[in-house]
């Protein structure tokens, strides 16, 4: 996490509030370039066979871990974390 923003993540972060509830969908407002989200030298990585990290924890997953990390802005992380607040309440609020 760093100060400021990582421009590569802006197209995702700007639409996150629109998908806070289960069943919601949205469209990106600008073009997303996945290669811009990768760190320098993404060809350097570790790979292993494992399983999913959440139930049913199915096996046969190939994990690829990049040696270098990509950075994202602190504020961008905070926006993404707000979605976790809705994890236990997946119902959209009732309108008044």
Task: Give your account of this protein's structure.
- The protein is α+β, with helices and mostly antiparallel strands.
- It has a single domain (7-89), classed as Carbonic Anhydrase II (Roll), CATH 3.10.200.10.
- 14% of the residues lie in helices and 16% in strands.
- It is built from two helices and two strands, in the order αββα.
- The chain has helices spanning 10-13, 74-82; strands at 45-51, 59-66.
- Strands 1-2 form a two-stranded antiparallel sheet.
- A hairpin with a 7-residue loop joins β1 and β2.
- The longest helix has 9 residues, at 74-82.
- It is globular, with a radius of gyration of 17 Å.
In brief:
With 96 residues, the protein is α+β, with helices and mostly antiparallel strands.
Strands, helices and their partners?
Elements lengths: L9 H4 L31 E7 L7 E8 L7 H9 L14
Antiparallel strand pairs: 1-2
Distance between the termini: 38 Å
Main beta-sheet annotation: 2 strands, antiparallel
* C-alpha-based Rg, rounded: 17 Å
- According to CATH, the homologous superfamily is Alpha carbonic anhydrase
Residues in helix, %: 10-25%
Q: Can you identify the CATH class?
A: Alpha Beta
